[in-house]
Design goal:
The structure is a single chain. This protein is mainly α and about 70 residues long. It has one domain. It has helices spanning about 5-10, 10-25, 30-65. The model has no long low-confidence stretch (mean pLDDT about 90).
């Protein structure tokens, strides 16, 4: 195994990186936008769900344990 500096200064390593990047299937602009919306919706839904659980448990603790 060679170090990072060796790999970056030798053309074969750079050519191998370029070859690998050519194999990558990049998403289209529309796919990226759709997936971004999905991530945002799921993040908001999980946040609301966890917030509701937190609120509910907080109420239980305040009512049951604190006079």
């Amino acid at each position: 195994m060679r170090g990072w500096f060796y790999r970056m200064t030798h053309p074969q390593a750079v050519l191998s990186i370029i070859d690998e990047l050519r194999k990558v299937v990049w998403p289209s602009r529309q796919e990226t936008a759709n997936l971004t919306v999905v991530v945002l919706v799921v993040a908001i839904a999980v946040g609301i769900f966890l917030g509701a659980i937190d609120f509910g448990l907080n109420r239980v603790v305040e009512e049951a344990l604190l006079p």
